[in-house]
Specification:
The protein has 209 residues and is an alpha+beta fold. The protein has 9 helices and 4 strands; from the N terminus they run ααβααβαααβαβα. The chain has a single domain, classed as 3-Layer(aba) Sandwich (NADH Oxidase), CATH 3.40.109.10. The two termini are 27 Å apart.
């Protein structure tokens, strides 16, 4: 099982080799895997920013507790959830579904009404956290894709999302920086790669009822 082997290989990389960059071909593969991520109702209520500009990354580093991964990795992925869920998001999804499957959009109206009703039942706070959780599903796919390609990654919550939102101009786009991931290639100086992985025993995590 390659996934199991890859999971044992990967770790949260602390120091990246600044001389090594991800090829455009591998970057496209990672983007496609993220695109194929599962999400509630299939709506994918998020956008993913790939930050390469050195100046922007320098600004983001100051909003990330000065962590070197922000500027030293090949790319920085910023997963942004929508702060408000609008009917248009659902309507756009229905249109895409009808076009992709070549069916009449009227046949999807009932499903669209169902989604709108379920979303209407949630409070603003519930919707906000619901869309944030969707980004973590996509993040998991990025980590698995990187491990298979032998690309190192570091998922990170250690940043000030309000400052990220300001630097990246996200507020006016109905977006919020939810979680980030730096990807590239590990530095030989990163001692973390030599540490044994610490995980709870299987029987401490799982319970069969």
């Amino acid at each position: 099982m390659h996934l199991l082997k890859n999971s044992k290989w990967r770790y949260a990389t602390k120091l990246f080799d600044t001389s090594k960059k991800i090829t455009p071909e591998n970057l496209e593969k990672i983007k496609e895997v993220i695109q194929l991520s599962t999400s509630s109702y299939g709506l994918q209520l998020y956008r993913v920013l790939i930050i390469e500009d050195p100046e922007i990354r320098h600004q983001l580093k100051s909003a990330s507790w000065g962590q070197s991964q922000i500027t030293d990795a090949s790319q920085l992925f910023v997963f942004c959830n929508y702060t408000k869920v609008q009917h248009k998001h659902i309507d756009d999804y229905l249109e895409l579904t009808a076009k992709t499957r070549q069916i009449n959009i009227d046949s999807l109206q009932g499903y669209g009404d169902f989604m709108k009703q379920k979303i209407k039942e949630k409070t603003k706070i519930e919707l906000y956290h619901w869309t944030i959780r969707q980004t973590y599903l996509a993040l998991g796919n990025l980590l698995n894709a990187c491990a298979e390609l032998k690309i190192d990654a570091c998922p990170m919550e250690g940043f000030e999302n309000d400052k990220y939102n300001q630097i990246l101009g996200l507020k006016n786009k109905n977006l919020n920086a939810a979680v980030i991931a730096a990807i590239g290639y590990r530095s030989k100086e990163d001692k973390s790669q030599y540490f044994k992985k610490i995980r709870k025993p299987i029987d401490h995590i799982f319970e069969i009822l």
